[in-house]
Amino acid sequence: MWLMPRYLASAWYHEGVEERIKEACSAMKGIPIAAACLVLANTGLGAQAVEDRLSCSTCMISWRTAAVLAESHGTAELSTIFRVNVDSRRRYWVFSQSASLFVFDQSGKSIRAPARRGQGPGEVQSPSGLIQLPDDSVAILDANLLLHVFDPELRYVRTIRLPILGIYECVVLHWPTMVVANALDPTPARFGILFHVLDSASSTGRVLSSFGAGNEAITQSTMYSMLPHALARSRSGGYWAASLGLYSVSKWSDSNRLEFTLDRRPSWFRGRSDMLDGGPEKPPSPRCVGVTEDDAGFLWSFCLVPAPGYREAWRSVAGQLRPGQRTEIPSGAIDRQLLHHTRIEVIDPVNRVVVARSTLEQAVTSVLPGPEAAVYVVGEGGEPEVRILRFALRVRERE
């Protein structure tokens, strides 16, 4: 049984939620999803604690494989992926640390990437992410301070020089004049500020405003755990911003006004994380990967937690490590897929409760609308592949 549609009023969410889900799914038959809507209260409040107890005793999270992304020639570059995005035509874009870009259709079939590596028109040097634009167009973030725009058929349109360093993620409020970017810009004028509004109408972008400076002191060594935020559009307008190093999700309006912040402090993610990988005798620190909102207005959160067998990730280098000594270990020598599992929570942002919780025995790389998530695995033939998992909230039938 699928989760309730988003046309339901928020008053249905709290007491007897399992019965409401059943009624909603039945009522939804024959109703176009375009007719659905959910209005989240614009409270304008500050941080709000989310209770740890589960509000629905019979709700459960399920998932299935929606697509398997793998190159026919089994390229090892897929083993170095750091981000997966999806566009409005359900094409999956895979970005690797080797600056390679792969594109797959919704069935997992590889299609030609629109841009070759280079410095000419329509070429990219270091692709780092995708921005979904109106009318099925897309823009590829280039770590070389460029943004390359392509039409729905992936034909090159134009390139914009970005005015800000270290962009981690973007969300489009109004293209091309209002793009919100989360960035790790080390320049004095922008250091420690979370968000920047960009105007990309011309070939050289402009910063219209910057906002979101926190109260915590940020240094060059802590900026990588304090500044990165995953961004996702909200179905009621505005957007969500989830801190990677702190289990905290903020709701911002289309005018970039902070509406409220949801704070989680479970036993497995008590406070600020240093987001380090730990060691053979020290578990890795927790970190959040991202959030996405479903059709019912529920918020799906994906956070990495230490895998019970995290020590196995260090097996190949354990003999090189000595207590009390610093040792440089190549990143590729650690099997990072053994470091983490993924804790998944479905949060009701209206009533500030956790509806359901589960653990995926894999490390999620990226969170996608749907809700979906990408994980890296080694296939049966030993070849690297990316699996797209699709999630659903269901109700267990009472015995």
- Averaged pLDDT, please? 84
Briefly, what CATH class? Mainly Beta
Number of strands: 26
CATH-level-2 architecture: 6 Propeller
Helix content: under 10%
Largest sheet: spatial strand order:
1-19-18-17-16
Task: Characterize this entry briefly.
With 399 residues, this protein is mainly beta.
Q: What does this entry look like structurally?
A:
This protein has 399 residues and is mainly β. It has one domain: 6 Propeller (Neuraminidase), CATH 2.120.10.30. It is built from 2 helices and 26 strands. It has helices spanning 17-27, 223-226; strands at residues 47-49, 51-54, 59-69, 81-86, 92-96, 101-104, 110-111, 127-132, 138-142, 146-150, 156-161, 167-174, 178-183, 195-199, 206-211, 229-233, 239-243, 248-252, 258-263, 287-293, 299-306, 340-348, 353-360, 364-368, 372-378, 384-395. It has a 5-stranded mixed beta sheet with strand order 1-19-18-17-16, with no helix packed on it. A 5-stranded mixed beta sheet has the order 2-23-22-21-20, with no helix packed on it. The protein has a 4-stranded antiparallel beta sheet with strand order 3-26-25-24, with helices on one face. Strand 6 and strand 7 form a beta hairpin. The longest helix has 11 residues, at 17-27. The two termini are 16 Å apart. The relative contact order is 0.17.
Pick out its properties.
mainly beta; 4% helix; 2 helices; 5-stranded mixed β-sheet; 399 residues; Neuraminidase
Tell me the layout of helices and strands:
Elements: H1 17-27, E1 47-49, E2 51-54, E3 59-69, E4 81-86, E5 92-96, E6 101-104, E7 110-111, E8 127-132, E9 138-142, E10 146-150, E11 156-161, E12 167-174, E13 178-183, E14 195-199, E15 206-211, H2 223-226, E16 229-233, E17 239-243, E18 248-252, E19 258-263, E20 287-293, E21 299-306, E22 340-348, E23 353-360, E24 364-368, E25 372-378, E26 384-395
Parallel strand pairs: 1-19, 2-23
Antiparallel strand pairs: 3-26, 4-5, 5-6, 6-7, 8-9, 9-10, 10-11, 12-13, 13-14, 14-15, 16-17, 17-18, 18-19, 20-21, 21-22, 22-23, 24-25, 25-26
